[in-house]
Amino acid sequence: MDEYKKAGGTGGLKLTYAGSFDFTTIPDPCTQHKLDAQILEFKGESGKPMKDITLIGADGSAGNFGIHIVGSAENIIIRNMTIGLPPGGGSSDIVGVEGNSAGAPKNIWVDHNTFFSSLKECDGAGDTEFDGMIDFKKGATQVTVSYNYLHDHHKVSLNGYSDSDTLERLITFHHNVFENMGSRVPLQRGGYAHILNNLFSNITTSGVNVRMGGYALVEGNYFENAKNPVTSRDSSALGYWELLNNNVMSPADFSSYGIKWVASDSSPSKNADDWTSTKTFPREKLGYAYNAQSAACVKSGLKSVAGAGKALATLKCA
User: Which terminus of the chain faces fewer neighbouring Cβ atoms within 10 Å, N or C?
Assistant: First the structure.
């Protein structure tokens, strides 16, 4: 997968973020949702797309703000950033990619970043102590999320703003570490998602939640200590998944890897508790060639190369 060519190429503007932030200055994460959101915005306007921009964090840098990619923005790359505990509650995603009347973002690459918040429950925050970690809404498409270390967050990745936001969204999640997460890992309404060679560790509510007729190819991932790792719930229509070469191969593996299932109160709903595919993913929607790595290699090596400050290293398997 040539994500760099797909999202930015060799031209355009490169911005290096060298700021610092001491996260120990926030001893109580529950103070953050009461503060105003702090947002860096890449906004494309009608007839004036913002395009070909790379934001890369210098090694050792850290930030405490959200990044919003909005409207007709395209070919935007976010790399090597460390962002945690952002202020603003429901008014700020760590990375939010969203269409509006000016158009919808496309060709977005979120690569080798470290993002986190907290799983602490905060009085008065409702369910938005922190909002989305990486959200794609209102037509945003052709997105790659790769080699990120994503941890300690309630609602991880919303793909589709509502049940009516079911455009042909094309998103790839590959080689990410999802650790200590609540739900939406990711949530997918409509569209097509390739969920390849990720590590899902300690998922407390639900993992891949594909809904509203969406298709997910769930391939070569490693699941451990995960509740409802592949499911369809909380929407008015089910989605579909193809399960291929993950560490879990059948229900006989559930106990070995700490896989647990809880039925949903919503209707319709379906869990992958028989660990069988519900539909074949249409390969023509991928748009790229790739070589999947083994789930065992993902488990043994991915954490050493995912996230910021890893020299943009990639996973090598014997």
Answer: C
